[in-house]
Fold this protein.
Amino acid sequence: MKTKFFSLLIIFSFLGFSAFSQGFTIGVKAGANLGKMTGQSFKDQYTLGYQVGGFVTIPLGKRFAIQPEVIFNQTNLDTSSKFSDIYAFNNVSKIELRQLSIPIMLNVNLNKYITFQAGPQFGVTLDQSKNLLENGKDAFKSGNFSLAGGIQLNLLKFRVYGRYVGGLTNLDNVGDKENWKVQSIQVGLGIGL
């Protein structure tokens, strides 16, 4: 009797794990990061950067899933001519902001090919250089909270995505003279492993 019970328990456990793992996906992704910073110290234009990272898709039924990600972002920022008037730094024309971003996206599957995504994104500034002009870690606050939303096309194991990320945190760590919020448009390709 105990053997039959344990056999049934093992079979049901295996079936439950198999059903869960059918939608569970681990993957990598990379793409372009078109970013800009609000405030009169920066040019009001998007500048090309890059992003690379990984994701995990955890199904919550047929229509929904949670997709946490870990992404390394580089956002290139061009300063305006007013930057040196507002802040006591001369000859600063370009700043590279490197962040580790952790978006937690809610996936809503319209069908097997189209997924809408929305959720919060947390960011941590990673630069370690000692020079303020090269180092976003001194000029920008270390943490960032954003909201993200976009669409993903699912083609076999490939995922083609586009996403808008709007920063909610003021990142100005130099003197709080302006409200610096990062905005980015991300496009790229992911693959489930």
About this structure: Residues 11-21, 128-133 have pLDDT under 50 and may be disordered. The beta strands are 25-37, 47-59, 64-78, 94-109, 114-125, 143-155, 158-167, 182-192. Helices lie at 2-21, 83-86, 136-139. The first helix runs from residue 2 to 21.
